[in-house]
């Protein structure tokens, strides 16, 4: 995968959430909180989900392995719209870390809610822990699920032995909470021993490890750095003997192979490396991994990349050119800056003409490292340098001009160092292609209706059409064939459900784009990271394991439905085509229905317009003319319209399944010259055949070019309702004997004020002696 695939999150942060499924969207279930916020591996536990429209819950989806059933111990469970209780059972081998859940009802599927698998036991915050005197007493190890009130502080009391090292961590921003936490450790007299505000690499969350000098009771204070708060300013406070980690080391593992993983972080002393086999499933690109200190009870956790390439781990010393690590070009590179002034060098052999990409991966995976990459020739001359690429990590793209050795140099921009300053460089062949981003991770499709999602591309050396579809659709649903046309970077993708599709199930799906690039097929799965960031209070980097986690649900039948006939329009420059929009009006949908292209800006390719008008009150259809000017690009595109009905104070909407728009040349003309020869003083019948653009009507006038001297053609026209005509060629008695190789015909016609012409391929015509 090229670096533009990895940077697609940053490049697509400007996306507007483009999901719409009629009035059913407001009825879909939602999760505002869970109690507790985690489950332990090997545990069976009742988890309360709080939110809206939860009555009738039929299924709980999770990004981690678990079985979930409605808890039988809760009276009338499943009937309360504000909460529902599920009994979750998780296998003992489940990976610890930040995961997600969703709930499904007959009204659709909820947006995801971040949820942890954690080997620490959970307790709930007590309501009165707002001062040191009323601090909530904790028995370690433990994790506390709580929230901070506006202008408030939470206090927790715990006992530490002399010489005991204890780790503290707040999961808030990493759980999508708006809370920007700060923690302080106080002794019995209220004196501050240590504190943590924003621990680098943890998206603004707090983390620290402290060794207590004397035995006694201590207090932890937790607040928002700006004293903000409220019911949604939730957190999970972890206290135990876990290592304080930010990323695994190495940060990637090769698919299907056994790998030993250490960790990089604030405090990884006595960490026991973990040996695991990376998943072989080609759709899994990230997993969470955890590890403990020697003899420890609780785990620190981070996110591990799963790749198809070798992962090289640096060996020191490699600061100097003559001590550079030799690597194979194409292997990913992992390293870290352990000492002041640490610089890592990697030398590799490249061939002339090889085009490669070197993409740094640090902050997006949890490392605080601000990596600078430099690429050097064998003589030490620098050919490229990169730090950041906008809001995210940088990359170098380079085509090697000669065979030979080159060196990749990695350094920390601010010369920071320590175990946590780990990095990974993803090395791939730089081939033309694209990355995709989808504007929503949850698609709720009305039974018998249509939903839509905006798909945006980030192109890399490829400007042709991209076919976009949804993979994994269950029976009864269809994704209208959709195309990001040449020169376009976004499109609206629609999904339509048959009326009899049963609700109550959540179906994992993927938005996929394919294209023929060069001699092969290129494919990319759309990321939903930008959409998740919008849902999760702008958390800097949503969990990587969820960046392709799209789920589809079924909602009740829409208030009305509109369809287009035909579903494909073919026309061309300075031409137009007409679509009929037909509404099925149930009782109560009797007002005018307005229609609009979506998105309003750039919803159609440049140069294409739609003369949109409403379906009048009481009417069931309307004709809409699509036109293209002389600057409109040729190719296949997709356009989507949204229908809106307003009656009194009620507004309902319906998505029209996507229209395929194909712009073709006005016509192509072919000259069929038969045997290709005639004798002087004779005649020859030839044929002109036109392939018309369906939008091109009218009579076509045919004229010959470069006929042999002495050969003439009868006047010829192709009638408006025909596609060919026979033409008589006459050779005079004194026609010049010989062959002419470049005989052509031109076809000309006029539609309105626009004139169109086409010229045939060259053919040979021979004149023979009588």
What does the main sheet amount to? 6 strands, mixed
User: How many DSSP E strands?
Assistant: 65
- Indicate the percent of residues in helices: under 10%
Indicate the low-confidence ranges by residue numbers.
Answer: 1-26
Fraction of residues in β-strands: over 45%
Going by helix content, strand content and strand pairing, the class is mainly beta
Oligomer: single chain
Distance between the termini: 69 Å
CATH topology of the domain at 311-429: Jelly Rolls
Q: Taking Cα atoms only, what radius of gyration do you get, to the nearest Å?
A: 33 Å
How would you sum up the global shape? Answer: flat
Name the features:
single chain, 770 residues, mainly beta, Jelly Rolls, Immunoglobulin-like, 6-stranded mixed sheet, 3 helices, disordered N terminus
